[in-house]
Amino acid sequence: MESAIPSHLQTARSRHRRVPDDYAPPYPSFVARHKPAVVNVIMAYFGLQYRGQPTATVTEALEQIAELFARANGPAHWDRAQYVDQAGFANVVSVAYWDDVARFDAWFELAREAWIGSDAASDGVGRFIEVLRPHVARYETLFSSLDRPEGVAVLADSMSGEVQEHAYWGGMRDRIALSQTDAMVPAGEPRAVRDGARIRIIAHDNLCLIRSGQDWSDTEAEERKMYLDDVEPVLREGMDFLRDDGVPIGCYANRYMRVVDAQGQPTEKSYGQSWWKSLAALERWAESHPTHVRIFGAAMKYLSTLGPNAKLRLYHEVTVAAADEQFFEYLNCHERTGMLNAVQGVTMKPA
Amino acid sequence: MESAIPSHLQTARSRHRRVPDDYAPPYPSFVARHKPAVVNVIMAYFGLQYRGQPTATVTEALEQIAELFARANGPAHWDRAQYVDQAGFANVVSVAYWDDVARFDAWFELAREAWIGSDAASDGVGRFIEVLRPHVARYETLFSSLDRPEGVAVLADSMSGEVQEHAYWGGMRDRIALSQTDAMVPAGEPRAVRDGARIRIIAHDNLCLIRSGQDWSDTEAEERKMYLDDVEPVLREGMDFLRDDGVPIGCYANRYMRVVDAQGQPTEKSYGQSWWKSLAALERWAESHPTHVRIFGAAMKYLSTLGPNAKLRLYHEVTVAAADEQFFEYLNCHERTGMLNAVQGVTMKPA
Q1: 3.30.70.100, 3.40.50.300, 2.30.29.30, 3.30.450.20: which CATH number matches A7-37+137-176+207-322?
Q2: What pLDDT, on the 0 to 100 scale, is given for residue B30?
Q3: Is B297 in contact with A300 (Cβ distance < 8 A)?
Q4: Integer CA distances (angstroms), B158 to A245, B32, B288, in order
Q5: Chain B partners of A297 at a C-beta cutoff of 8 Å?
Q6: How far apart are CA A341 and CA B6, in angstroms?
Q7: Which residues of A are identified as catalytic?
Q8: Domain map of chain A by residue range?
Q9: What is the complex's ipTM, to 2 decimals?
Q10: CA B66 to chain centre
Q11: Closest CA–CA distance from residue B92 to any residue of chain A (Å)
Q12: In chain B, which residues have their Cβ closer than 8 Å to the Cβ of A296?
């Protein structure tokens, strides 16, 4: 058993963990370990938004971003997922990860201009870029098994052994190194800034992002049926709640995405991606909303019972980003897209 | 909105609450407020254990303890409840409350001798006494409504206004004043000491007791049906789990009691009373055991939906007792009775 916080990020605490030192979780979970030299990671979501079937413009844009990713200083890993949002628009999101700010910065300027610059403004397809570049003390991961990293964990040096801080409410916070000394309270309200056709969102300190995924590709027979019939509908209900009614409880936006393969075909993987006012708001929803309480109860029972035999794979990555670790830019997107949903009704100022 | 911790018990914190300062619970709850002059409260459980129908000895013993309660320095409040335990014995428990240690001490010596002394040793009926006398910083209460105090709260000076620290995991701990500065970690293992026919249990620092009650006497029609058909069976399942399989997770013993009236007839009130190795062990069960997660999920939905219209009344009192605030004595009880269940297989030493 080891701490989810790697030794080089352990500091003298002014804030306690939620469990006693002898706490033993009821089933194993693991976290991604970066090399100690890694200071920041970059999580960059490149979105495309359109109605109906993909046009040639859409196909070209998806090829374009893949080509940009393949260039010098491109991401160490990326994946792609899609969903139809509450306004009926298809959204295809290509998510790319780096663990070196200098490489990202060297890559990003050109890619940004290509993706969401003046050439893109008139093609009638919505574009967005959502980037966090958290210090490693500001994010955590969790995996139910060892051999298939996802998201930012693909960049990691290795997976941990069994970690202690999981399977209790508060484990998410306790896995973030900064929680040793900081309550990570949000400060300020998101605001929108217009820059020509583009809208930038300036959020606030300690904005929170979760990407929480499931992979049912290895499940068989009974377990598959249980996931698809019992778990997935409850999960979807929770995801729909966050998408449609999240703002009053601090969820600015939620996307329940289906991962696609290189040919754009749906795989047996999905993830929810949501933006939150604070880690505390995410904690409260997860702990008390009936849909998530049911998800959690089912997961606890499922994982405690099946143990290492469970073929369903679960993972997440949660970031609490400082104000200067965020970038949001939208072009031709509807007003409920991503962080635009956090500033509805707010008057925009020019940049 | 006020803190559950009364102002005279608020101190400079070395440990944080689990929620931010702007946390707003989704429905109201209340706590009992004692006069600031109250330093300790006493919770004393006088149990009677027998097989089959009550004999004359049983009836006389119940009359005797009621008569003792009525004497000078007797309790400010008491109630009675019963259940049939896992070994098939009927248990009738008379619970008495004081808020003055001197009065309790003046009363207890004679009552103890009468209840569990040499005269009682040969009457063939099991007896026990379980007493906590916590400092007021070591216990908390919670009520879903204002006008019907139960248990120790009957002694209180008043009920609070709406308190902030509830409806999230960790609220129980955050309502205990000592949590401001102390993790309340248990120290040591319970041991048994024989004193003639009586067995005393010496537990350990930070032993935890919960009395958690429900009163469905005011519910009607749909709400009553929902409680009895949907909630009570799930509650009973959780209570049975703690009674039969609690020890490995730190629950030494659990009784799921039905409150009786002055004529010994069942009322529409019940409570669970359980002894725990630590507050942390109680927290882990409540948060992760499927039966309690379902209870909690149902309660959150129920109370959030019905709001002030809910007629079901819920309350609890939770104590984390110092080693010198505990007293356990058993006579002619089977080995799974109360805190005896915590020392099964342990060799007893004479007092």
Answers
A1: 3.30.70.100
A2: 97
A3: no
A4: 38, 6, 34
A5: 290, 293-294, 297
A6: 40
A7: 316
A8: 7-37+137-176+207-322, 42-134+195-199+324-350
A9: 0.89
A10: 20
A11: 35
A12: 293
